[in-house]
Amino acid sequence: VASNRINTPELADRLIAGVRDKGPLCVGVDPHAAMMPALFGSAGPEAAAKWGVALVERCVGRAAVVKPQAGLFERWGARGMAALEQVCQAATRAGLIVILDAKRGDIGSTAEGYAEGYLGASSSCPCDAITVNPYMGVDTIEPFVAVAEREGKGVVVLARTSNPGSKDFQQQLIAGPQGEPLYLHVARALAPMVARLRGPETGWSGLMMVAGATGPAEAARLRATSGDALFLVPGYGAQGAGARESMAGFVQRPGGLEGGVVNASRSVAMPDGATGATALKDWERAIDLAISAAQAELVEASRS
């Protein structure tokens, strides 16, 4: 498939430039129907599109990265997918980095379809990176990495997630000379892909890994194993992890701790002052304050 890429920096370099400029916050765009402000209309795909685009606009100048949650749009079928496309297109036009949280994982031509559909040059739902599930094997990730390599984009692999059930498989010890948990075996297997998506300017890689903030010790072990892979860190905010815990897998650089982005969804996209707002200006003020407060807390933690 031909690419229309022209002098587009690698994702890792673009992401790190954004983080150094604005901070490591990644804003989750999760349209929970029960929490959608009524001022955007009745809870449905059209309201989700309006809300999502408005949220993206509030992120401009305050955060470099957004993360739409595909499943919360897909539940509405074709109209939901159209809403997701509108949000991703708006974020791309605004110059934001878009990580699509879709957790895809399949083999052969099916994986190629997903990869081209979201990371390809002609995608109607453009994103800079997509989350993938590695537990069918490294060959299922290769089609995504191939397209990302061609387009200057990224792939985010589930390694050690933030949910309680991560202990069921990811943290199980695998027989061998070191008896390490499965998520470290996953990280080691991805080393060649980490090298392929490394940004020439920063040395970080757009082969990213999910490292949940609810497991700071595991995140530190994952960093020691994964080298230059950037981390996507869920679990901060509404899930209970603090700013410093969220950066357990980051490393010290001249400007402070660095190594990825920390996602917050409900705590910044649906704070108390926003969900009940009846006027757009009140909603905008609440969102601006929530994003700025989270960003400030993360930046302070990175420099302390």
What does this protein structure show overall?
The structure is a single chain. The model has no long low-confidence stretch (mean pLDDT 93). The longest helix has 24 residues, at 280-303. Helix 5 runs parallel beside helix 6 and helix 8 (182-189) runs parallel beside helix 10 (216-226). The strands form 2 sheets. Strands 1-2-3-4-5-6-7-10 form an 8-stranded parallel β-barrel, surrounded by 8 helices. The chain has a two-stranded antiparallel sheet with strand order 8-9. Helix 10 (216-226) links the parallel strand 6 (205-211) and strand 7. The chain is 44% helix and 17% strand. The protein is built from 14 helices and 10 strands. The protein is of the alpha/beta class and 304 residues long.
SSE layout and pairing:
Layout: H1 11-22, E1 25-29, H2 45-59, E2 65-68, H3 70-74, H4 78-93, E3 97-104, H5 108-119, E4 129-132, H6 142-151, E5 154-160, H7 166-169, H8 182-189, H9 191-196, E6 205-211, H10 216-226, E7 229-233, H11 243-246, E8 251-253, E9 256-258, E10 260-264, H12 266-269, H13 272-275, H14 280-303
Parallel strand pairs: 1-2, 1-10, 2-3, 3-4, 4-5, 5-6, 6-7, 7-10
Antiparallel strand pairs: 8-9
